[in-house]
Amino acid sequence: MADSNSIQLTSVNIEENGSKNGEANVNQGKEQNRKTDITYGIDDVPPWYLCLFMALQHYLTMIGAIVSIPFILTPALCMAEDDPVRSHIISTMIFVTGIVTFLQTTIGCRLPLVQGGTISFLVPTLAILNLPQWKCPEASILEAKSADERTELWQVRMRELSGAIAVSALFQVIVGYGGIIGYLLKYITPLTIVPTVSLVGLSLFENASEVASKHWGIAAGTIIMLTLCSQVLVNINVPIPVYKKGQGLRISWFALFKLFPVLLTIVVMWIICAILTITDALPPGHSGRADTKLNIINQSPWFRIPYPGQWGTPTVTLPGVLGMLAGVLACTVESISYYPTTSRMCGAPPPPVHAINRGIGMEGLGTILAGLWGSGNGTNTFGENVGTIGVTKVGSRRVIQWASVLMILQGVISKFGAVFIIIPEPIVGGIFCIMFGMIAAFGFSALQYINLNSARNLYILGFSVFFPLVLSKWMIKNPTAINTGNEVVDSVLTVLLSTTILVGGFLGCFLDNIIPGTDEERGLDAWAKEMELNFEVAEDEVGGLKTEYAYNTFDLPFGMSVLRRWKWTSYLPFSPTYRPRPCCWGLRAKNN
């Protein structure tokens, strides 16, 4: 809940509508309750100047989440630490994030969600790049290579990742636009979600340790600072001078720590690193110095428009595609869990089936674009921005659309991306320690739905989380252990068994669906209520079939009159006129 002393951007008066008979009155009352505690609802359009300010908050939140990815990706690609192209990769990620976010909020699920680069794709990426043919050469060999050879060294790896990401994302497109999500949800239980999502964070602990250990003092300071800003000082507001016409200059109270904890932490710790640099407390060339990578900014152009195939034509191999499929599955599961949460935050009705289908399908298209553009990553719903909606009480999709425009503009300003690349590595390491832990915690939060006193559940949970870590650790140390005589089969099995989120998700799903257990014990009853995509239903005039009531909130912004005129559109799983049969939906449909 936002603090009462926080800046109030505006207020919304909710008009009380006249009472109606029967069910309509109940449904209307529910929607009124959903909207009473928010400043702007999902369909509201704030003034442009407020949109700009609130969009900036979402933009800065997104930057805090996305900037960490290249710090793990680029070393695995064998890219030099001072290579200015690192900033181009960040700019590409921001650019694609803007495009996909605009499409998602406009013609996708139409919830105010930010879609961008995700840590989930790093786990299979590292598994792929750990294959013998993609491992980086020794440091002495790298130093002996020319600039052109060094460039080709990382670009050939990027092309491999780009093709794998783009092709594997076809899975999301098919299950989304094909309406298969409903069938999958019968098997995606809380005990499937826990290992799939939590292992994303747990699998990257060595990467966090490697970066943080560059200087444990700075990393520890970052952890302490971020903890203070995001947890301890979260309800303390800062006075700022505000000028209003007719009122003059006055003091207002701003929730600085609540809104920008990551950005504030980076700025403060960066200043400390600059002081340590000026006083020569850190030796020249130390990764904790603020001047180690300044040449990246000088070598980066002011403007550069990312384009598809900028690193060469993507290549496609079976091991890469199947490995990246693990990231796609993890993102699908995570995004599905965000949809009803976001909808409630925005005061919107529960998302209907067609909106869920379009959302997953659009996320798949976004990941294809990210692969073709060469971002080295896919797209997923940013949980950080979902949290921003809960803090600011602003759930307008128009604000997110403005934020997407800012992302597109900043994506072409190459020097802006270069600024984030030169952040001292120990600072990033400290942020990793908290960020990866939060991702793991988000996965474990699904345990609230199951019975933790059940020996059955504890067995599945423990084995599906622990064993993938053991197996992947052994596979990384023994990348040539599998030898079937077929190089392609060896590579496929090595990548699949090295990808913890795939192994853990499969074990959790398989064991939970074959080991006997009651619905209450497995958490299916509580999970169905949480994920209640309870589309309101009414009797169809022909055949007595149950049909979905189409909420205006999730209608497309154009062409609705045509869709309603064409009866055949009711068979399209992604159309707002879609009429699903409750028997074909994995979760319980609420028949009123």
Biggest beta sheet summary: 2 strands, antiparallel
The number of distinct helices, counting runs of at least 4 residues, comes to: 27
Q: What sort of overall outline do the alpha carbons produce when their principal axes are compared?
A: globular
The helix content, as a percent range, equals: 55-70%
Low-confidence stretches: 1-36, 534-551, 583-592
Kindly report the average pLDDT value.
78
Query: How far from one another are the termini?
Result: 32 Å
- Major sheet: arrangement of strands: 1-4
Measured by DSSP, the beta-strand proportion falls in under 5%
Radius of gyration of CA atoms, rounded to a whole number: 25 Å
| SS elements, strand count | 6
User: Which class do the helix and strand fractions yield?
Assistant: mainly alpha
Number of domains: 2
